[in-house]
Design goal:
The chain has a 5-stranded parallel sheet with strand order 5-4-6-3-7, with helices on both faces. A 5-stranded mixed sheet has the order 8-9-12-10-11, covered by helices on one side. The protein has a two-stranded antiparallel ribbon with strand order 1-2. By secondary structure, the chain is of the alpha/beta class. The chain has 2 domains: 145 residues, Tetrapyrrole methylase, N-terminal domain (Cobalt-precorrin-4 Transmethylase, domain 1), CATH 3.40.1010.10; 98 residues, Tetrapyrrole methylase, C-terminal domain (Methyltransferase, Cobalt-precorrin-4 Transmethylase, Domain 2, 2-Layer Sandwich), CATH 3.30.950.10. It is globular, with a radius of gyration of 21 Å. The longest helix has 21 residues. A hairpin with a 7-residue loop joins β10 and β11.
Length: 262
């Protein structure tokens, strides 16, 4: 038998020859920023895990850790996963895709070290782990080797709609979720025939998205919110938003046409 059997929950210690119970990997959605939107299941797992991994930018704590800080125990091991780059991506010769692959590979192996030692690891993820969540890249690398469970969280789309006080879709309408990082022509083509839409990942892409909405005649219908549910939440008319001030955690919502009954 090989030292590691991927279908089992035990690993053979290479020296002693004894079976060591493997730890379990949990990806928990911590929601959009308001600590009260953390689910009961996520809170239970967070409090019981010996190791808590979280993403953050260089020199920062990260929104996910900030959201759950009040619930952590003093004896828990905190495992920061520091992105190699955030914000604007450096130009060539910097290879962003390669840098991120290396980062996720290294992060997965750091977590695997704790799991192989029999420690459960909770990985924090803003919003929902499988909805544009960074946890999915760890899941892709580790779920075949360790027991893995995902706890869904309140995602930014529904949080933004709640903050704006607008229903997203009525009856048989469809909702399209788009990343503001898409090329301008792609955004225009996709937004040209939507019932309702949510446009994420704004930041430096905001002005491009606003141009598209203006050309399509959708600017008056568009609603803008940044840092929905957080203490710094701001709602502003689209026309009054200064592009240079738009954070990554901002969203434009195009709500569906209101249904007034039959």
């Amino acid at each position: 038998m090989s030292p590691f059997d991927a279908s089992a929950t035990h690993q053979i210690h290479p020296h002693a020859g004894t079976a060591v119970a493997l730890g379990r990997l949990f990806g928990i959605g911590v929601g959009p920023g308001d600590p009260e939107l953390l689910t009961l299941k996520a809170l239970r797992l967070l409090r019981s895990a010996p190791v808590v991994a979280y993403y953050a930018g260089p020199g920062k704590r990260g929104n996910a850790l900030t959201t759950v800080q009040e619930f952590l125990r003093d004896d828990q091991i905190l495992l920061p996963l520091i992105y190699p780059v955030t914000g604007r991506i450096p130009g060539p010769p910097f290879d962003y895709e390669q840098a991120m692959r290396g980062f996720y590979d290294a992060s997965a192996e750091r977590i695997a070290g704790h799991l192989s030692a029999g420690q459960d690891v909770v990985t924090l993820c803003e919003g929902d782990p499988f909805f544009y969540g960074s946890f999915m890249y760890l899941h892709d690398r580790l779920a075949g080797r360790f027991t893995s469970e995902v706890v869904p969280g309140v995602c930014s789309v529904v949080a933004s709609a709640a903050a704006l006080g607008t229903p997203l879709v009525y009856r048989d309408q469809s909702l399209m979720v788009l990343a503001g990082t898409l090329p301008e022509a792609d955004l225009e083509q996709r937004l040209g025939a939507v019932d309702a839409a949510a446009i994420m990942k704004l930041g430096s892409n905001f002005e491009k998205v606003r141009r598209v909405l203006e050309r399509l005649g959708l600017a008056e219908r568009a609603l803008y919110v940044e840092r929905a549910t957080m203490a710094e939440q701001r709602i502003r008319p689209l026309a009054e938003v200064e592009p240079e001030s738009v954070p990554y955690f901002a969203m434009i919502v195009l709500p569906g046409t209101r249904w007034r009954g039959v």
